[in-house]
User: Fold this.
Amino acid sequence: MKLQYTKPAKEWTEALPIGNGRLGAMIFGAVEQERIELNEDTLWSGGPKDWNNPEALASLPEVRRLLDEGRYREADLACKNMMGPYTQSYLPFGTLRLSFEHGSVAAAYERELCLEEALARVQFVVGAVRYTREMISSFPDQVMAIRLTCSEPGMLSFTAKLDSKLRVRTFVDGDKWVMRGTAPEHVDPSYYRENLRPIRYGETEEGGAMTFEGRLAATVEGGWLQLDHDGLHVRGATCATLYFSAATSFNGFDCEPGKQGRLAGERAEASLAAAMQFTYQELRERHVKDYRSLYERVSIRLGNRVSPEDMPTDARIMTYGANDPDLAALLFQYGRYLMIASSRPGTQPANLQGIWNQDTRPPWSSNFTLNINTEMNYWPAETCNLAECHEPLINFIGRLAVTGRRTAQVNYGAAGWTAHHNSDIWAQSAPVGAYGHGDPVWALWPMAGAWLCQHLWEHYAFGQDEGYLRDAAYPIMKEAAKFCLDWLIENEDSYLVTKPSTSPEHKFRTEDGLAGVCTAATMDLALIWDLFTNCCEAAELLEQDAEFKRELSDARNRLLPLRIGRYGQLQEWSEDFEDQDVHHRHVSHLFGVFPGRQLHGTDTPELFDAARTSLERRGDGGTGWSLGWKICLWARFHDGNRALGLISNLLRLVKEDEIEFTGAGVYANLFDAHPPFQIDGNFAAAAGIAEMLLQSERNVLHLLPALPDAWSCGSISGLRARGGYTVSMEWEAGMLASATISSVQGGTCRVLAQTSLRVEDASGAAVACNEREGVLTFLMQPGQTYRLVPRQEISSS
Ligand code: FUC
Assistant:
């Protein structure tokens, strides 16, 4: 499981990412001039502010009246009064540059990222000397470390230094080389070009902006080390270790990062000094042990590798794509790797680019985009056995519930909390759009609370921790539901609808042109159904709020029913409007199929079929994340070959010099290409592959629900399922060959496979079997592992 290349990276999307959830680096691996782009996940522009807009509440009656009169385009315009400011931007920290004295002429060049140990390596030979660089970003020790070695004594000489695109100064502090900087107080999104100064710094360093500090130190063997204003110089050494630490003054979403900030320098120095107590070997061992405790929970084999073992990863993508099942397995594990590298307890959630960004005005501000992208980032967290990595998102939702309460009150006069299309480290909760610059088709979407709360519930559904549900999740879910209760209004037929409403980013055709705002887009209804259902189940489990639960379930039953349109499709809007673009990248109206659970082949067969027709009409194209969503959807429709087709579309090599937005795929470093780079597609691909192999809605573990023909033999271990289960499977000739299931708390387990099964307990005794394929039910003891074998296998062996 590794990414490998025979050349240094030229473009950022060829460089290799490492990260510990907070400190990220992109390593280029050039022979003479190494370039390492650095990130720290709290380095954002801006600070907390008031983004709510009382004009929103004042405009609401007018918007609703226009919608009642079918004047959609005018309603769009009126919604422009309901916006707030754009979010702030995630910023690049700086660059670590290493200039070597051995020149650029090298042979036997290799560059790789090892997913099993989370290590990046560069090696080559200059003359007769073999040089190696190995780099880690350590979670236990909160530093990055680079080990540099050469095969002949005294042949290693280089200078290391830091610089940045932000306002910084650099200096020597004892045996450390320091870069101290200030972030801008404001950065406009790259698509907003109205301001004379899109990037604004305060006048003094003591202003309101965030400060940050990076510290660099080294130990050398067999040579000497010197620091001066020009960098940290290593001369005539045999080995050296570079230690890098970084911190910002960020002190919480509700604190001024300047005046009320933490001391970035002290924090960076503390982790650097602590890490320097360890040799590189010790740091590496501690790092690998920590990383493996997460990574090794899941292993995967999707058939045999068909590409040559030594083929560079970019050539492999180009030549084989998804025809190499082992490349799909690599994409799956890469998704898990990126999650461990970008989201760990105590860090910020993974943003549009995870934690890796080199631009001061990154695409879409590299923010938290809540109408699909942020949620998608966390689709693999539970199924792929990385529940701890879900924590940053779960905590972030808690912060949005605080800021979003005020937004609900000020903008809508509603109870509970709400958030919209975009957010940032300050937990911005209001509609963005620069008070009218934006388009309501994306800005005016008060449904982020409802969607995010699904993550609170799923974390419980998989982990079964009732204390967490009671104390952390349910109170926030309940407040999001209260907002929805207030936001829903009765229509003339006594159904509950949302108004104004949008189907994120997708417009419909009206007699006088395209419009975005309508009454009761399907996604609103589906999200509210999901939230109310989860709240009802939580209240029941916790034996709380009987009255509130009744209110929610009454409201849920009165939601405007979903409809089937003239093409047999699941309508995207409550009216059967024509699409702006039948191939539009968003498939919001299919939320109830995935990641939701409202629509299902058994309980709602007509709507489920209509949803399939909608997906069919959308086609198999789209941005990277759109392909990712479609993998998951086709998995839920139990069409493994179609899901693999989408994986194949994603495993197309995108080169940086191609014109933007021509096509989705992956870059040379396997980063998802929207394009541009956006990490959500990586996470959705991992989630989608898991979904093809195991599903667990409606209290049934469905084994191999969407296995494509091309993955006829394979295995997976350690997937998690709702209900607290962990599942491992092997299959041959497209059929389940064996499986094991364990559960922490035991209880009744229901399993569905395409074959009749026999279940054995740990001692090998049969506890259940079934005659035909169908749901098999058996009782599990807590903590015990059960083995499932197909019955044909038993009779033939
Ligand atoms: C949504 C999507 C875009 C992009 C952006 C970050 O607005 O519609 O495709 O992913 O988020």
